[in-house]
């Protein structure tokens, strides 16, 4: 049985009971389930310390995502995450955005992190 545990727009983090080998070289250790009003994504992280996901899966609905992942989450269960700040990515576990995205002049590959009340350069 799958339980509906999400609202209309939310993110929640789960650590896997057992690492998941997603291809020949990458292993997933944690995931984030992100539900928006239209879609559900599961972001896959290939390191326990990863701030950005390495892969993502799209699901038509919350029930499908939970059906696939619920039993794989460890005893900590789902950890609710706040929505990201404006212009920040939903898969980023810290308040990080593409530099210039807020002014419609994105500098792809350059990032900013919100720390101590201001945006600072971030180098992953």
Q: Give Rg in angstroms.
A: 15 Å
Large-scale geometry: globular
Beta content = 35-45%
Main sheet: strands, sense, barrel: 5 strands, antiparallel
Low-pLDDT runs: 1-7
Q: So how many helices? A: 1
How are strands sequenced across the largest beta sheet?
A: 4-3-2-1-5
Helix fraction by DSSP (H/I, runs of at least 4): under 10%
Query: How many strand segments?
Result: 8
Structural class: mainly beta
User: Secondary-structure element order, as H and E?
Assistant: EEEEHEEEE
What's the pLDDT, averaged over the residues?
91
N→C terminal distance: 39 Å
Summed up:
This protein has 124 residues and is mainly beta. The protein is built from 1 helix and 8 strands; from the N terminus they run ββββαββββ.
Task: Looking at this protein, list some descriptive labels.
124 residues; mainly beta; five-stranded antiparallel β-sheet; three-stranded antiparallel β-sheet; globular; disordered N terminus
Plain-language structure description:
This protein is mainly β and 124 residues long. Helix content is 6%, strand content 39%. The chain has 1 helix and 8 strands, in the order E-E-E-E-H-E-E-E-E. It has a 5-stranded antiparallel β-sheet. It has a 3-stranded antiparallel β-sheet with strand order 6-7-8, with no helix packed on it. Strand 7 (111-115) and strand 8 (118-122) form a beta hairpin. The protein is globular.
